[in-house]
Sequence to fold (964 residues):
Amino acid sequence: MYNKTPELEPIVPSYHLRILNDEQLEQLKSATLEILEKTGIHCPSEKALHVYAEHGARVDFETQIVKLPPDVVLEAMSHAPRFYTMGARSPAFDLQLDGTAMYCATDGSGTETVDFVTRRRRDSTKDDVGKMARIADYLPSVAFYWPMVSARDFSTTAPLHELDASFSNTIKHVQSETLMGEKTARYAVEMAQVVAGDEATMRQRPPLSSLVCTIAPLAQDKGGLESALVFAESGLPVGFMSMATAGSTAPATIAGTIAVADAEMVSAMVLIQMAYPGASTYHSMMPGIMHPRTGDFLGGDWDAGWFYLAGVELAHMWGVPTLAGIGTEAPALGWESALGMSASILMCALCGAETASGLGLRETCTLLYPEALVLDSETYDTALFYAGGMEVSPEEFALDVIKEVGPRGHFLAQKHTRERMRKWQLSELVNQPGKEGGYRDPIEVAREKMDWILENHHPEPLDEAQQAEFKRILQAAEQELG
Amino acid sequence: MYSETPDIIPFPTSFKSELLTQAELETLKGGTLRLLDEVGVHFPSRKALEIFADHGAKVDMDTEIVRIPPDLVEEAMSTAPRSFVLGGREERFDLLLDGSHSYLATDGTGVHVIDLETREMRDSRKEDVAMMARVCDALPLISFYWPLVSAQDYGRTAPLHQCHAGLTNTLKHVRGGMTVPPQLAPYVVEMAMAVAGSAEALRQRPPICANFCTIAPLAQDGHSIENALTYAEAGIPMSFMAMPTMGSTAPATPLGALVVGDAEVVSGMVLVQLAYPGAPVFHSNYISLMHPRTGAYVAEVPIPLGWMAVQMAHAWGVPSLGGGSVSVDATEIGWSAGLDTGAGAMMVPFYAGEICGYLGLTGSSMILYPEHVILQHEMCQSAYDLLHGFEFDAADMALDVTAKVGPRGHFLAQKHTRKHIRDFRLPLLEQEDPDGNPRDAREVALEEFKRLNETHHPEPLPDEVSVELDRILAAAERVAGG
Fold:
């Protein structure tokens, strides 16, 4: 027996926000084109260099610098689809990236876990990935799953074990950010095909997508690019994220950092479109700022908010969907951790982001407090309520009830009140009455909810044949890569 | 010597969004008009009843219920000004309520204070009102000082002492008018007059405004109504604030509560316009929910009612007291308070209410932790940084610097980096201890509060005005005591 996965609740905003005007977008686009043409990007992959060279780029094979004329960039980007589907095990959980809704993912690739039982910090494991996938499966706010932590109990095959733990514990779409190199990518594609059932379905409703980070400034990673090419070849979406940092790996201005980051992502998307025109790709702008005094990376909600929002609009200008940044820099679960979360979710949704990731980790995406995902899910619900509209229907005025009660009366004895009060669904976390009056600490309630989910929610497993196939793939990968 | 008060920083409303259509607003206004016409409002003031009767309202002198025909409502409301000025000590602190800016206000009026030194909860006192006015004077995003707590060390004259503590400790506009026994209202007017300098100056740039809470459902408070007429005659602007609670004092449907509150507010404004056409009035409708299980007051309801109330205010052609709000229900400064603060601050520019924010209290406006205003001000600063607009030019894109650094380089050694890295506003609350660990934001905020409390002493009122205020207070004490 298994439990039904609750329906997704994407944010469908009833109003929108524009951060940059058309002229500003054009200015930034020109900057990207100028950087790609004159400064170029470093690409340490022979395979990729050849693709670039064959499609009109000026490639220096010795320095591995690629310079892209503007018309080559624009031609390549014209093939990138603006809308597509990210599939799930069942169509009800497919994500339609059509510009009307925003779907959120967990954060990913943390390296430490606050243990579910002992509450001590320790290295993260494959089991953590699986447990968090089950919690994510239960939460309607989580539309797709990033393996939240690293399977550090495995070595070179860890990314594949993260996929195993994810697909085995959630029926939702999975997006990986750790699949490096052609060989690893091919095993991942095999796993995706096992989940989809056949190649055609995998291409139509890909259950897996990938995210590859660029290297700032203006460089690509060999393993990342070669993995991306495998994904594109197989019809699985692949996106690129820049985390250029103003002051260290990018100019110490917001606009300068945006230009560097955008050039990195566009150069990679251009490669994908040159090699596989029409392949699904996306743009993910997540730069930060170097703390002027300590050198720390300031990202998350406060300081780098502009990057995330501008990134959404730049993605759309290039004609591709976006993976927006949401999240918090807060070190723990208190006041600050709730502060920026709902605001960043809301802003990204209002700017029209199709997807976003960042629910559930702390300490700049490195530390998993398991209950943080439940708490962040609540902040998502707040954003959902702020972004939603409300219909006005005169029947809802209840004028007859008001007439009956009249001035200085009360509504406690009205049948209308009894009927309607029961329909109020207040937050499970913040409106829980305490035994001694007041409300309970939401963090404590979140821990209980997490425990309840782990004990009670067991989503539909992969069938036996799929499980056997996964086992075989992992064994083969272990032999070849391990 | 005194401290310089920084200029106030209002939020521009360039991101203003419309949740309700004009047709929906007309439907809602229709609900209000029907309630005023068919059910009526209780006005326990002979003076008010006579004004209504003189202008053609249907008045029952026995039950004190006034029913106002739609034509009379529309006619009276047509004389209410859409925009007017709330004055500060200097013109740079004047607030022009014309819809182009949202000015942040403090919250009010709490009754418990977590003592700055003992950290124990105690009853609030006049010295707390003064201390908070001084510290808020130093916080640029706060434009409007609503005495955060009640001067409970004074009896019936407490509201006058709150007004006094505000006027003598901040150069910003003070919400000095509250409900007092009618014989004390002229003293409030005298205080405003003393600070403004003359009756004419008081009308032009009133240094205080007043707020009157209505009584849900559909009733007015006798003293408030008579105070309102006294203040209106002198030209002191006033808001009427409805606080209907769904399930107890209002129908358990949001729209039902919205129209009940709206009818209360509009009835108060109509009275003032009938008596003193053109008197500055504004609109405030705060809808809460009775907790279905405990009966507790839930101010943060998961429906954008605050936004709808702003649009209703504007539909009636008056400014709004209300909009994005950081007021929190939680009693402690914890996760839940952070959630409400973050989401509320971000909504300020969208809702576009003229006076909004409500910084500083917890526990549904009952408890003052002095440091909370610093935490919330910092969050509002982040929202402002993000949403007041983004300008950049070609130089900001720093393409020459990027070209010089090139792929795989770094920007640390660039003169441009040294010059611009300091342009980023460092978040006040993100500080590290000597070991490099993040400091608790609340501890940092408390330090900042104490620093401002010790060092910020705004310009005092001229001696003769101070003496005059003392004389007025002494006279009021005699009247109240008698």
In short: Residues 283 and 315 of chain A are 6 Å apart (CA to CA). The longest strand of chain A covers residues 208-213. The mean pLDDT of chain A is 94.
